[in-house]
Amino acid sequence: MKFAVSREALIKPLQLVAGVVERRQTLPVLANVLLVIEGSQLSITGTDLEVEIVGRLQLENAPGDGEITVPAKKFLDICRALPDDSNIEFSLKDQKVTVKSGRTRFTLSTLPGNEFPAVEQGSNDLSFSSEQKEVKRLIDRTSFAMAQQDVRYYLNGMLWEVRSQELRVVATDGHRLAMCTRPVNVEIADLRQAILPRKGVIELSRLLNDSDENVEVSLGSSHIRATTSEYTFTSKLVDGKFPDYERVLPKGGDKFVIGDRAELKQAFARTSILSNEKYRGVRLELEEGMLTIIANNPEQEEAQDQVAVNYAGDSLEVGFNVSYLQDVTNVLDSENIKITLSDSNSSALLEEPENSDSAYVVMPMRL
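The structure assignment produced for this chain is given below.
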């Protein structure tokens, strides 16, 4: 098995595939990537048994089919260390791989390709196609609200909900919730739900770009697969039931605040400097035409900032975690932001004032 390829063509798929490979492995072969040549196509596969990514690139000629696995991190480090415009010659002899470029030469150990585990193929009973930028937007707008290491393991992931002609994703850590809904071309009679694990969400986001190019998504009972012209991404689904997020969406809020997103973002950033490092709480004091943001900490220090807002109603005081408010102002790109409140013990609903495809819920804090 031998082939030649430019460093530039190899490094991007190799980086993305090697990103899935875990440092600490139970099986030695999981520290490797699988290289397979079929005709003039080279495919590179990495997996941690939960998530699998296959990157594909075209070779200039068909050097003969073959497969082998090589250490992922070392192979990537070698490619990174070579000059930008170099060509890489790869050859296999006596179960050792030689990687040559100009006067530089490396010999790597290998493991046979047939030892490499394949993520089992589930039944793909629901398939649809969407523009990459649409799916990327769904992830970018919500992924920050996923839990990190919650004992409620189903919160350490993202709910994908397929309805007729639309795809909705929801993420929550129990203190806040992010939701985004986009139109997709799919016909389905009943609602379908799947929970994508946190690592799968992060890796899929890295593969997608902001282009109009399509991604084919197929959803099985235990797996999700996304295929573009260059990659195939497969992830196991989280086996669990996502909470009924619709119950969390605040209903009947009668206090509507519309403010300049950039001004609010800066005010939250300034007051957060003196918020309690552990709880990150700030107090929002709302009165006609004005929002006052106040932060205190155990050292008796205080920060206060005022932002002129469009609000007409009774005065209200409510506490929130300022980091959660900052996260929302960071992902929205509208000029203004709309905040709906009802009282000092109820959640806030944040969204864009017009045509919003996203909604954010932040639980209040007692300060």
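Interim note for the steering committee: The chain has three domains: 2-115, 126-246, 250-362. The chain has a mean pLDDT of 95.
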